[in-house]
Amino acid sequence: MEINMTNSKLLATAFTVAVLSFTHAQASDAPAGMEKCKVVNAEGKNIILENKADGVGESAVAHQNKAGDADAWIWVKTGECDKLNHGDASGVDAETQAKIDSSAMGA
Prior knowledge:
This protein is an alpha+beta fold and 107 residues long. It has one domain (30-104). Helices cover 31% and strands 11% of the residues. Strands 1-3-2 form a three-stranded antiparallel sheet, with no helix packed on it.
């Protein structure tokens, strides 16, 4: 019985640590050379496609956004956010472009 209780305590502790580690991974933990970007068009509408965001608000949980969600953001190479928010996707990698409604960029 003592072994089962020890195993249960270990599992509970491991689970707690895993949950705390996951919830602590905030959006501020940017990968090297990347920045968080809310891509908006000229009207200020977020144009990140549904389920394509790398996070929403302070959460870094990916693919949980609705289309046009004002709090949705993606990781982009440092310096590309301003470029995208001025309607210029030239030179931006295909993976990033696939997350954006390019037809709404100039709107």
